[in-house]
TrEMBL record:
Key words, A-Z: ATP-binding, Kinase, Nucleotide-binding, Serine/threonine-protein kinase, Transferase
Keyword Transferase: yes
Protein name (Swiss-Prot/TrEMBL): ATP-binding protein
Domain Histidine kinase/HSP90-like ATPase: residue ranges: 16-108
UniProt-listed Pfam families: HATPase_c_2 (PF13581)
GO molecular-function terms, A-Z: ATP binding; protein serine/threonine kinase activity
Organism: Streptomyces luteolifulvus
InterPro entries attached to this UniProt entry: Anti-sigma-factor_SerPK, HATPase_C_sf, HATPase_dom
Length: 138
């Protein structure tokens, strides 16, 4: 299930072409948003969050570009939580439990980091594809 965004006062949505440059742009936008929201980039969770975000965007570029010419990255935060989602139009919803067993490649890295940080991950399908949500404590 997606995080309750209505309780996270800071939000930003970015639409990008689904191509390799999206990884860098998604990261740079996350950094700018965090600074704007008063969340210091020096926090250890921020480095991990940026790596997780990069992996999710990379997965969309590698596996969904053919059927999803754009991806949408949603960023949200409060004083105690950071959440972000990557949406693409590919209908496949990767089973997150398989990623936890080490058979998920880059998604395995995402899941392991999320778990280590005490966060949550969810895949949310919709009529237009899917979102993969990550929520991390700050």
């Amino acid at each position: 299930m997606a995080p309750a965004l209505d309780v996270l006062p800071h939000r930003h949505v970015l639409t990008l072409p689904n191509e390799p440059s999206a990884v860098r742009l998604a990261r740079e936008t996350a950094e700018r948003a965090l600074v704007e929201w008063g969340i210091g980039l020096h926090r250890s969770v921020v480095d991990a969050a940026l790596l997780i975000l990069s992996e999710l965007v990379t997965n969309s570029v590698r596996h969904a570009a053919e059927c999803s010419p754009q991806i949408v990255v949603t960023y949200a935060a409060s004083g105690s939580r950071l959440a972000f989602a990557v949406h693409d139009r590919h209908p496949h919803q990767p089973p997150l439990h398989q990623a936890m067993t080490g058979t998920g490649g880059g998604l395995g890295t995402v899941m392991e980091l999320t778990r280590q940080l005490g966060g949550t991950a969810a895949v949310q399908g919709d009529a237009d594809g899917k979102n993969i949500w990550i929520t991390l404590p700050l």
